[in-house]
Amino acid sequence: MKDLTEGAITRHILTMAAPIAIGMIFQALYFLIDLYFIGELGAHALAGVGVAGNAAFLVMALTQVLGVGTVALISQAVGRKDRAEANLIFNQSLMLALLVGLAVLLIGYAAAHAYMVSVSSDPATIAAGRTYLQWYMPGLALQFALVSMGSALRGTGIVQPTLVVQLLSVIINAILAPVLIAGWLTGHPLGGGRRRLGQHTVAGCCGGGLVVLFSSA
Fold first, then answer.
1. b/e map 105-128, b = 16+ CB within 10 Å
2. What is the rounded distance in angstroms from the CA atom of residue 186 to the CA atom of residue 93?
3. Rounded-to-integer distance, Cα 47 and Cα 35, Å
4. Are 189 and 163 in contact (CB under 8 A)?
5. Residue 74 contacts by C-beta under 8 Å, 6 or more apart in sequence?
6. In the chain, helix, strand, coil percent, each to 5?
7. Per-residue pLDDT of the chain (217 residues; tens, 9 = 90+)
8. CA triplet 162, 163, 164: central angle to 5 degrees?
């Protein structure tokens, strides 16, 4: 836990803001890397994933609602040196993340087809986008818990370790994308949908890394 009540305010802001901004760039890189390799599968696959990605970014925006609230409340508790209150807020945030993540998972599966029909009239694009969303939903649901943990760490002034975890996840994603999407090395391409199993593994690794950070914080 880092004490942000001492020292220059400007230095604290810059120290906190830079890793957060870089982390947002890393979030976009996940999707851009996928689009690059999915483009090799054809125009319909690329269009389907591109349109489905809009829904994914909407869910990512929802995670920030939870993240901002968690940062604000935990940082205030830490500033008061009230560790018990900070732990309580974190537990509540994580429980809310699990509940909202479950709701997003269920709604996503139920509404994936209707969403794709509302934004596209091409059957092949609709099918590709629906498949992508159905395989992506577990990873999106996990984002709420990951954002909750990362926001709690930022609320205590810890930002650099979470940036390292994000960087490693982007590297793993970049390695898995050509192997799973295009079938490099294996000769068995899984396409843009089932390839998301690999990203769920990445999300799990990120979660594990953040748990380790919490245990040592």
1. beebeeebeebbeeebeeeebbbb
2. 41
3. 9
4. no
5. 86, 89, 90, 93, 151, 152, 155, 156
6. 85, 0, 15
7. 666 667 777 887 777 777 777 777 877 777 788 778 887 778 888 888 888 878 888 888 899 899 999 999 998 998 888 889 999 999 999 999 999 999 999 999 999 899 999 988 888 888 888 888 888 888 888 889 888 988 888 888 887 777 787 788 778 878 887 887 777 777 766 655 444 544 544 554 454 554 444 444 5
8. 90
Structure tokens at 136: 């992506």
DSSP string, 15-72: HHHHHHHHHHHHHHHHHHHHHHHHGGG-HHHHHHHHHHHHHHHHHHHHHHHHHHHHHH
The two three-digit tokens of residue 162, written as one number: 């979470």
How many angstroms separate the CA atoms of 77 and 7, rounded? 18
Residue in the block written with tokens 């205030």 = 76
